[in-house]
Specification:
alpha/beta; Glycoside hydrolase family 3 N-terminal domain-containing protein; 163 residues; hydrolase; 2 domains; 4-stranded parallel sheet; Glyco_hydro_3_N; 8% strand; elongated; 4 strands; beta-glucosidase activity; single chain; signal
Length: 163
């Protein structure tokens, strides 16, 4: 009888051990949690280097998967004329940005980066893109309805530098 208990106790121990070594629950990744709870949880987990990196924006020419992962960079900006290739299409931009985003998501905390483009008149860095007047020109049209639809012409970039 005792010979049967030892393997059974071993099995129970193994199951308990497996249950306790499951992936740690990360509140900051749970969309059902409140924003404040998620932020506090994420900030508690971040090292000082990760916090500094998340507040850092670098120019696209200096970006690489290694730099993004090693320094936890939070944002990349394509300044004026900083393009993936001459006459770069929207597809070229996506193909350039995707590896950067994957590198950021592969870090310990999986925080996505923000990609910005200096495009105050529209994305004229993208070949065949729609170009709009500067904001003062858009306002002068007094066509608020149409101005609210300009976003539908965007390329999926996270933000545009407006000077």
């Amino acid at each position: 009888m005792a010979a049967r208990r030892i393997p059974m106790l071993g099995l129970v121990f193994l199951l308990c051990w497996a249950a306790t070594t499951q992936a740690e629950y990360m509140k900051y990744k749970d969309p059902k949690r409140s924003l404040n709870v998620r932020i506090k949880d994420l900030m508690k987990r971040m090292t000082l280097a990760e916090k500094i990196g998340q507040m850092t924006q670098i120019e696209r020419a200096n970006a690489s998967s290694g730099v993004l992962k090693d320094y936890f960079i939070g944002s990349i900006l394509s300044g004026g004329g900083s393009v993936p290739a001459p006459q770069a299409s929207a597809k070229d931009w996506v193909e350039m940005i995707t590896p950067f985003q994957k590198a950021c998501l592969s870090t310990r905390l999986g925080i996505p980066m923000i990609y910005g483009i200096d495009a105050v008149h529209g994305h004229n860095n993208v070949y065949n893109a729609t170009i709009f007047p500067h904001n003062i020109g858009l306002g002068a049209t007094r066509q608020a309805f149409y101005m609210s639809h300009i976003d539908s012409c965007s390329l999926g970039l996270d933000f545009s530098m407006i000077c």
